[in-house]
Every structure is written in C-alpha cells, then in structure tokens.
Write a structure and sequence with these properties.
The protein is α+β, with helices and mostly antiparallel strands. The chain has one domain (89-306): Thrombin, subunit H (Beta Barrel). Helices cover 18% and strands 32% of the residues.
C-alpha cells in the first residue's frame, strides 16, 4: 500500500533546503576572499590595495589678510597661468612706455579758417581737422628739436601761417610757418617761431613693419587731445585712390582714426613713428575700423635738411 505524501511538511522542507544552500554559498565566498592586512606577519607585506592612502588634513579658514596654509598629503599644483600673466604684464609695460615716449611730441594744429574739404569719394577720404565753435583743430608731430612739425596738407589747408599748441607741461600756443608741401604724400612741414628746444619723436623704419604688428594712433580726435588708440597693421602696402590721388603703399590699420587725428603719428610698440595718419574709410559717416597712414619713410625728401 502506497503511503500518501504529507503536504503539511512542505514549508519545513523548503525552508531547510534554502538555509543549507545559503550556508554553502557563504562558506565558499569566505574561503576565497583576500587576506586581511594583519596577515602580513605570515605572508609578507599587505597588497597595495590594503595599504592606507595618505589623508588630506584640512586647516581652519585663515583670518582676513592671511594666506591659507597648504593642505598636507597633496602635491603642490603649479601655477599654470603664471607665464601668461608675466607676458601680458610685459606687453602692457611696453605699450605704456611706447605711448609715453611720443606723446610729448604730439601737438595740436589750428588754422584761422577751414578750407573747403574735398568731396568724399565713396567713403574713402582724407581725415579732416575737427571743427569746434572757434576753429578747426588737427594734429601734428615734432620731428626736430628746433621746432619742425610734420603734419598733413589737409590739416593746414591753404594757410601759410598756423598755430601750434604744445600740449605737454601745460598748453602753450606758438605761431608756425609753412616750410614745405609734398602733394604726393599729402604731408606738410611747419616751423615753430621759437628758438626753444622741443621734445621730438623717434623716427622709425616703416619698411620693417609687418601685417599683424601692434600699432598705436595718437592725435586729437574730436578735440580730445593726445588720445591713443591701439590696433594692428591690417596691410602694410595698400594701394588706394583718395579723391583721385593715387597712394601706392599706405599702411592700413584698424586703430581708431577720426576727425582731428589728421597729421598725428602711427607708432610701433617701441614708440617709434612708422606713419602719419592721413585717411580713413567711413561710408555714410559710419566708423569701419579702416584707417590709413603715410609710411614715415616716404617723408624722407620732405625732412631732408629742414
């Protein structure tokens, strides 16, 4: 006779089976786990995975004005931007020195009356003096200690006698005579009526400038005397027609050149004069960042034996 299976014992059977299986699995895992660090006395040094990592000790916040202490346990991080900071500071210092070298030689030039400006040729035109309520004012540059001043024909217009204002050390106005004109370069040479010795600019070599060189335009835009604006040489040999006159090798720059900057210097980062500001491109009287300077080497014949 077959005995029937007692179903009331099923829960107990399955419980014992699960418990015994769990015990077997636990014993298997425990027998294969890594050796603890204190077993090093039997089996040598503990694996690297068990060696204690250095702890970072954080110090309390410093008082105001004090430098925070360095955290221990971490390598010092070098200042990655230190060389860049030093370079930027050096460039800033050079720019400041360059401007300081030439500013005492930059003058304001005023004429008794404004000459009728030539027509604007498609936005490309000569820079005109800035006209205030009294008289037109342009810029110029002392190129010789005896009082010789280089400027543009547009600045002096048709006047034979002009006024030159020395802006450094307090404004002082002098009369000046027109010495020479050079229509091919739009440059004019004046002589201050004085026997004093004046601060003159350092003349550079415009043949050495390259596209991308930093340049600075200085003048009196809209009457703001001896203002400086920085840019680069956009093109060093630009052939353009200005009001029908061909200029084969002008220096093009994005330095801001406005009314009143006519006759002012364009200098390099060494403070040397490489050009004289004389034209700009302003379609519909909108600023474009396109200005032109006459290379200073072209003024050689005008400056020979003043």
């Amino acid at each position: 006779m077959i005995n029937k299976f007692d179903c009331s014992k099923m829960p107990l059977f399955w419980g014992l089976l699960v418990a015994s299986s769990a015990a077997v699995i636990w014993l298997s895992v425990a027998s294969h786990r890594p050796t603890a660090p204190d077993s090093a006395k039997h089996y040598g040094p503990a694996p690297a995975a068990f060696q204690a990592a250095p702890r970072t000790v954080f110090q309390p916040l410093p008082a105001a004005g004090q430098q925070p202490p360095a955290a221990t346990g971490l390598p010092a991080v070098p200042a990655a931007n230190q060389p860049l900071t030093n370079t930027a500071s050096a460039v800033q210092e050079e720019l400041s020195q360059a401007i300081a070298m030439v500013r005492p030689a930059v003058v304001a030039i005023s004429t008794p009356k404004l000459t009728q400006p030539p027509p604007n040729n498609g936005g490309l035109s000569y820079i005109q003096p800035f006209t205030d309520a009294i008289q037109p004012v342009g810029s110029g540059l002392i190129v010789d200690r005896r009082g010789y001043v280089l400027t543009t024909i547009q600045t002096v217009g048709e006047a034979k006698k002009v006024h030159v204002t020395i802006l450094s050390g307090g404004k002082k106005k002098y009369e000046a005579d027109l010495v020479k004109l050079d229509p091919e370069t739009d440059l004019a040479l004046l002589k201050i009526r004085s026997n004093k010795s004046f601060t003159s600019a350092v003349i550079g070599n415009s043949d050495t400038i390259e596209v991308g060189d930093i340049v600075i335009a200085i003048g009196s835009p809209f009457g703001f005397s001896r203002s400086a604006s920085m840019g680069i040489v956009s093109t060093n040999r630009r052939k353009v027609f200005v009001n029908g006159q061909l200029y084969p090798d002008l220096i093009q720059t994005d330095s801001a050149i406005n009314q009143g900057d006519d006759g002012g210097p364009l200098i390099n980062i060494k403070g040397e004069v490489v050009g004289i500001n004389m034209a700009h491109y302003i379609p519909d009287k909108h600023f474009t960042g396109i200005g032109f300077a006459m290379p200073i080497n072209n003024a050689g014949p005008l400056l020979a034996g003043p």
